[in-house]
Design goal:
The protein is of the alpha+beta class. It folds into two domains: about 5-100, Serine Threonine Protein Phosphatase 5, Tetratricopeptide repeat; about 115-215, Alpha-Beta Plaits (2-Layer Sandwich), CATH 3.30.70.2330. It is built from eight helices and eleven strands. It has a six-stranded antiparallel barrel. It has a three-stranded antiparallel β-sheet with strand order 1-8-9, with no helix packed on it. Strands 10-11 form a two-stranded antiparallel sheet. α1 (about 5-25) packs antiparallel against α2 (about 30-40), α1 (about 5-25) crosses α8 (about 255-265) and α2 runs antiparallel to α3. The protein is elongated. The two termini are about 15 Å apart. Residues about 95-110 and about 215-269 have low confidence and may be disordered.
């Protein structure tokens, strides 16, 4: 049974965690580092804070410190998927000639899949994992129609993969007709990458032609970083989840349930 002091402590922790998350949402990574360091000092068993700290260090290019933070999270929770995946990503980065992490991010509302105008596309013929290790949910990518394929490149012009042939031919035709598209990463792992492609301009000659013809789907589905909001899937690679739609649009940590519990005067796990 929790005491009133315990409940007050947990509420304070939840509020401080939210502040750290807000800093990440605003890409204020140095401040996110400071807030998460303070959290790990006051709550040394807070796995999520160590994961957030690791992500902030990665964004600042401090890979050694990021590795230490993720290693601490893994020591506290040996089965933590976020820490394990990011440690693998850091190992891949160490094998790459270019160690910069992608920083060209989309706004959270871009993660809404809208009827006919956008869709989630899986890539194939992927580039080496070392090239994709830097890519996380929210990174912008570019589309190029080349040789009948729809190829995907990161912001530095490095090839990532080819768009699923189920969608590529139609999109290539529409692009040739003058349509324009924006794309960003939904999920990137060692073995796969998915992106969301959004129609940003429809040429008058393409009027009435849907980029993604619906097949009994709802008007739009909301994606939260690496997963749909209404499905239970694996944890997000980064420790943060980008939420779009009618919400305020914020980066949520995977400990958000704990935060909600704190607000309800329940003890966190």
């Amino acid at each position: 049974m929790t005491t009133r002091d315990d409940e007050k402590t947990q509420r304070a922790k939840a509020q401080r965690s939210k502040e750290a998350i807000d800093m990440a949402m605003q890409a204020r990574w140095a401040e996110a580092v400071e807030l998460n360091i303070a959290l790990t000092r006051d709550f040394p068993k807070d796995v999520d804070a160590f994961n957030r700290l690791g992500r902030a260090y990665m964004e600042l290019g401090k890979y050694g410190l990021a590795r230490e933070a993720y290693s601490q999270a893994q020591a506290l929770d040996p089965y933590n998927a976020i820490a394990a995946r990011n440690l693998r990503r850091l190992n891949d980065l160490s094998e790459s000639d270019n160690e910069e992490v992608e920083t060209d991010r989309v706004e959270p509302h871009q993660f809404i899949e809208e009827l006919g105008k956008s869709g989630i596309v899986t890539l194939y013929d992927l580039s080496p994992k070392e090239d994709r290790a830097r890519m996380v949910a929210g990174d912008r990518v570019t589309l190029r129609a080349e040789g009948g394929h729809l190829n995907v490149y990161n912001s530095r012009g490095v090839y990532m993969g080819k768009a699923d042939s189920k969608f590529a031919p139609r999109l290539v035709r529409l692009m040739a007709g003058g349509n324009q598209y924006a794309a960003s990463v939904v999920k990137s792992t060692m073995d796969m990458m998915t992106i969301i492609i959004r129609e940003t301009f429809q040429h008058p000659s393409q009027r009435g032609k849907l980029s993604f013809p619906p097949k009994g789907m709802d008007e739009f589905r909301v994606f939260a970083g690496d997963r749909k909001l209404d499905e239970d899937e694996d944890e997000d690679d980064s420790g943060y989840t980008i939420v779009g739609g009618d919400e305020d649009g914020e980066v949520l940590a995977n400990d958000r349930d704990d935060m909600d519990d704190g607000d309800n005067d329940n003890e966190d796990d």
